[in-house]
Amino acid sequence: RGEDDASFHGRMLEGFTRYLDTYGHEIGVLLVEPQWGSSVAAMPWPPTLLKAYISAAKARGIAVVSDEIMCGLGRHGAEPAPGGTGCFLAECWDLQPDIVTFGKSIGGGAGHLLSGAVLLDGATKLQSGPQGTAFQSHTYAGSSARALANGAALLNSMESWRPSVRAIGDAISPIVAELNEASGGAVIAHGQGALWGGLFAHADRAARTAANLDFKKRCAEARVLPYFVPVGGFMLTPRYDDDPQELASAVKDMAQCALETVREMGWAPSVLLPMGTTSETAPPLSRYKGPAEESLDTTQRAIFDEIDRTRTTGAKRGPYGPWLASPPLADAAQNFGRICRYETCLTQREAEMVILAVAYAHKAPSEWSVHVGEARKAGLEEEHIAALAKGAPPAFATGSREAAIYAVTADLLEHKRTSDENYAAGVAALNEKGMVELVSVVGYYTYVALTVNTFEIADPLLADSINAKAPWEADAA
């Protein structure tokens, strides 16, 4: 409560990565549903957050499965990626999982029992017509032959269904938005394409169950039938060829039933689940940025000028502002940093590769944005930068010096130590002195990352078109 979406997502990602760092050695697979089913009533994941979760898992060697048993085969309604099919959200959102699974979306046969919000009197309209159809149901629905035949027909004609799915989404979207507003937060409705849902927003499950029972009775009286989800709410999974106007009429009736239910429940706002905001609730706490340049004393000014003279990126980008609050620390740190960046056995190309890996691992936006330009100047190829921007290993040649440097770096960032194999490869590539220097570079730029993250130091030269909270996203494309 009182937390905007960006802060909530950041906190969730931090907790998730901390969990992976603690238990990653016990995890074989990360299984995600880009758009949930009945467990959260068709709620879509925030794409950027889900992509960050997946990148964090893959960076730690954990395989990722995108389970699109509900939203796959175009039901999600998202626009296809350039040159893509639009079949799966994993493709449309560039999630890059290792495996995609699907089932319900390709073949079902339970008809009106699970096919979304429809007029009960019109249930016969759900029978497959000469042009075929697509509707969500239990996988195979007890008839694998029908499911497979339906699935084959759907795959052959899916491109032609995309406008229908878009029309369904356009018909339902304003009704859902109106329901959210009219309920005052007592209903949390959401979705996209031909997959929608809503939850009764009481924090107590027993209260949601009571609301669901009342809601079912009202829907029966109104002659509409959504799929009632066990957690307390509904789901809509219409056929791709449902008439949008007829469907919208049924969904409006269902939304009215939901409104009547929450009014009957009479829930106070204090018992409702919190909703995300756009940050109007409380201004963010101002973080210390260091002494103003015009107020620097003689010692601070000398250190500032030394940094500005010796760094290609200058003294106004990076962690130096907060460090200058303690001149002895700032001087020691900037000298250590100068050595790590310019005076080790690593080439500038190798050093910048290591720095980008550190910046991504610690999700340090300004460290990334400052050094991605330096990496390009040093000759690091775009495909390697794109891999680092996704938390993935660059495609360096097997057995190469760069591969060894990256392996040691990734080990340190993920496990806080190195395996015998990677240690041996690092020593073979760099010798013992070089290994000491590589570990020092990783350590120094981790210190930089912690500084810029703690004090929320932005990059003053970052382009307005770049996401300041995740600038690596622009380089991952």
UniProtKB/TrEMBL annotation:
To which protein family does this belong? Answer: Belongs to the class-III pyridoxal-phosphate-dependent aminotransferase family.
Cite the entry's keywords alphabetically.
Pyridoxal phosphate
Q: What is this protein called?
A: Carboxymuconolactone decarboxylase-like domain-containing protein
Which terms does the record give in the GO molecular function aspect? peroxiredoxin activity; pyridoxal phosphate binding; transaminase activity
Family annotation (Gene3D superfamilies): AhpD-like (1.20.1290.10), Aspartate Aminotransferase, domain 1 (3.90.1150.10), Type I PLP-dependent aspartate aminotransferase-like (Major domain) (3.40.640.10)
Looking at the record, the residues that make up the Carboxymuconolactone decarboxylase-like domain are 327-404
Q: What is the lineage of its organism?
A: Eukaryota, Haptista, Haptophyta, Prymnesiophyceae, Prymnesiales
Q: Does the keyword Lyase apply?
A: no
Q: Does the keyword Flavoprotein apply?
A: no
